Structure prediction request, 325 residues.
Amino acid sequence: MFDKIPTVPTADEILDRSFRRAAKKMREKKNKDRANEEFVRAVTQAVHDKLVSIIQSFPELDTLPPFYRDLVEILFGIEEMRKAFGGVGWAAWHSRDKGMDIAKSMRRSSDSLATRKQAVARIASIVHQIDKDLRYLNDARNILRKLPIVSSDEFTIVIAGYPNVGKSSFIRLVSTATPEVASYPFTTKGVFVGHRDISWRERVQFIDTPGILDASGTRERNKIERQALNALIYVADLIIFIIDASEHCGYDLATQELLLEEVRGFAKVPVIVVANKADLVRYEGVLNMSTVTKEGVEEVLEAALKERTPTTIRIPDYMLQENQE
Prediction:
């Protein structure tokens, strides 16, 4: 829904393109006064149409699925985006209103060139007033179009836990996702999505969240952490919570267990606890695996897939149609 949003031009770029288009229209008129009037009308229409198309190129914020709506709120703020759209809409209306008024008055003007310059100055002033809004929307566009595609038609397994416990390594082993993996915290800077085909008609979706730090105290969660919680709340059918019993991740076991209890507190889906780095130390009472030696990885995947039920096995409509044919 975001990947087809075109680049949002700056105020100068909009005006430059509009002036070039208007100049072509102007050359079609032999009468000087009619040419000046046509220039103003063409600039006015071009600016208005471009500003309106910018607003229309973004999806309606109110109709976004909860997962994406919350991400927009986290990354940019819904109200801030509304204000930017409002500014662009204001400029679209006022540029056309002022431009057309001036164009209508040009036939009564004794100096159509001077009136044309007046119209251009007024329109340019209006568009420059929203340059910050245009740049803001383009920055948003550049980020939004890179967001992962999260399907609501697939059984979704969200991988959670502290940074550097092996979440990215696990999802790389069991799905098609290939997030970068490094030996320092906050390796994963966004939400990565991977898939695994279970059969010709069913696919499981894995979401690798950024590391979630325990913010149950006074510290407020940062954007990366809130993205992870967003995924957990809205799209999970199952949560795999990974613990590093070796504590090489930089967080002691007690702290990791506190976060586990927090996740269990707000999760409305099953939570499977898995201890990674079993090649270094084992953790009794839960599934153990090592993403280095691959020991236990298939067993964890098997346990996760057992949580699927007929209500969570979602077959996309297009596959059902193909099967019927």
Observations:
- Residues 313-325 have pLDDT under 50 and may be disordered.
- The longest strand covers residues 192-199.
- Strands lie at 155-160, 192-199, 202-208, 238-244, 271-276, 287-288.
- The chain has two domains: 11-144, 155-320.
